[in-house]
Automatic annotation (TrEMBL):
Any GO BP annotation: antibiotic biosynthetic process
Protein name stated in the entry: Penicillin amidase
Positions annotated to bind Ca(2+): 322, 325
GO MF term set: hydrolase activity, acting on carbon-nitrogen (but not peptide) bonds, in linear amides; metal ion binding
Organism domain of life: Bacteria
Active site residues of this protein: 250 (nucleophile)
Family designation: Belongs to the peptidase S45 family.
Manner of cofactor binding, per the entry note: Binds 1 Ca(2+) ion per dimer.
Amino acid sequence: MKKILFVLLALFFLIIASYQIIRHQYAPIYHGTVNISGLESEVEVYFDDFGIPHIYAANPTDAYLALGFVHAQDRLFQMEMMRRVGSGTLAELLGEDLLDVDKFFRTLGIPKHAAWSTELWLNEGDSPWKDAANAYIAGVNQFIHEGKLPIEYTLLGTKPREFTIQDVHSIIGYMSFTFAMAMKTDPLITKMHRTLDPAYLEVLSIHTLPEHHVIPNHYPDRNSETNELNIKETLTALLEKLPVPLLEGSNSWVVAPSRTASGEVLFLNDTHIGFAQPSVWYEAHIEYPGFSFYGNHLAGVPFGLVGHTRTHSVGLTMFENDDQDFFEEHLNPTNTNQTIYNEGYAEINSRTEQIPVKGSEPISFKIRESIHGPIMNEVIPEIGRLTSNPVASWWVYILEPTKALEATYKLSHSSSIQEVEEAVKLIHAPGLNVMYGDKSGNIAWWAAAKLPIRPEHVNSKVFLDGRSSRDEPKGWMPFEENPMSINPPSGFVASANNQPDTLANGVFFPGYYYPGDRWDRIAKTISSRTDWNLENIKSLQLEAINENHPINAKSMIDVVDPLLFEGFEAIYGALKSWDGSHDLESIAPTLYYKWLYHTLHGMMVDEIGQEDFENFLRTFLYIRSVPNLIRSTDSPWWDNQGTETIETRTEIIEEALKKSLNELKAQLGSNSSKWHWEKVVILEHPHPLGAKKPLDKIFNVKAPAVKANEESVNKLAFDLNGSGVYHVKSGPAMRIIIDFANVEASESVLPTGQSGNLFSPFYSDQTEMFALGQYRPQLMNESMIRNSSKRKLVLKQINVN
């Protein structure tokens, strides 16, 4: 026994010692001195209790060089993944399993567009944003050459190449694509349009319905000559392979002084993004003479997309506008390198790209482009199965080079609402709702996008006819006619991915908007009082209630025989009295979502098949259409096409209920009072290497159960399915609250932690806080930061003498 005990103790200490050696080799450096080249002066970086760097520099070049260095030491592998997705080079690092993803992004044109944007960037003259971006990239490369590379590179047997401005543009291109809902939706709607009776599509909410909640516009007075503000300072399977998350939605609202306890603006933002480890946003606080900014940064992008100074704050949600159309081309019968166009023919241009593949020879890949854009049949299986004709993607983003770097730099460096609007105008795609509040009491919302003017007859959700110019956009709307609201009389602006109200021409701009359940809860709640502050507003940001679900549930309960609930009285009563909350101890959601799945499955699979049904559940169309689908009594969807009899709504819903109750009984036991929501909800933040077992046990971050839901303000989304287990896929990527009465008291939280380095103490330290709805400070007070920080890193310039 003594020998065994000795061996076990020796083994224990050996493991501890080995871990410490490995940790020392790979962990980030948060204190001490580092010598790097390119600095003009010494830079001090204080890391707070959550690993957020507070950078104090003498000038902007030093500040952004330091940001690049510390950003890389915490997030270099995330930067690697992001740039490789956007440049179509994932297979080079991760192997041939990612080859289809590379082919997709190359065909879509993001690498080509990044090269174009880079060429124009390099030919532009000097500018503050160009100098800052170059300094940031230099800082990243300093770490690549001099720092301790994260362990992922060792496991993959590779080292990173230098970072470039083209990598930055590749990342921006990828993040722009993540908003492109059209690729997931339009092929499915086109198939329904071509194969089903129009009565089927009338039940779906392909376009905005009268009962949906819209964002009201409030256009400002403008100088008639200059248009200046007159305000005084006032594809589903392929995408599942991606090792980086997709942007999916967001909430933001800004409350005017008339509705706050402090008499100052109250600003909130929570961007909804696919959960991953590390999470998307990297927080950093930068100080140099004349500039003080606390921002949320994307990996590899030098300027914070969301952030605040001491005088103004900028946030984002997805506009969800339709900026991508698909044109079905028809080939010249005598020349397959031409398409029929107007009275003649248009050439198909081709190029061949070499895709590097780990462990193999490069793959030659041919990309073809028609007059309308790249042909997508080969890389989007749904298109290839739908038609043999070439289908081209017309996408606003690739039509002109991006100015995202200039825009984001100016958003953080602006000194007035007028300057912020000028920066917003530079964003041509993807469509964003830019939210704004300032110390002067101004609040604003702009829909930032270059909006095409489509012919009146065009339905942008179905494939258009490429044989003529008849379906093509006829021009662009002026920015001043975009949806927006500047200092509205309501005392707040809010956006939650729902439809903006009609434009100046009296029409809704088409898009992939959500029905507005979240927006309605936000608007009603904000309007209910005038004493909002940093503390009492949290209950709204953390709210997990959807008012529509109980109405759906009641409509289903009302048509079934109550005797079907015999033995399940607890769940019957809970569902009948449900208020739409998703508390962990609630039992109503446990039955509602399973019952909803089986009902929709019974309605739709016979018409569109299992594969397209699963695709339907992953589009905006599902969220928007459920109320109509479930509540309509005479819908053709109710009849099962596989039987001779005509099924009724009651029959389908009752059969779905029987199946749901039996499955839940087998899964959770016969006592339905114990079918608690927390028992069927799982949240795990996946790391790119976590897709391979047993690395998931090492790199992935498991979280406590959360109040998973569809379309509550605190949206924690999952894929509807019949298993009865719901893996939360996305949610708030941060939760920010700022009261301009005391900007230094602002708060936020991240889903996991600040660092993506496995050996950092900040790898997952916010996970439980996030799940429990807790917040932590966004520090900006210099004396507090210097006095409380336990970690200080000094960056010194290398003495060339």
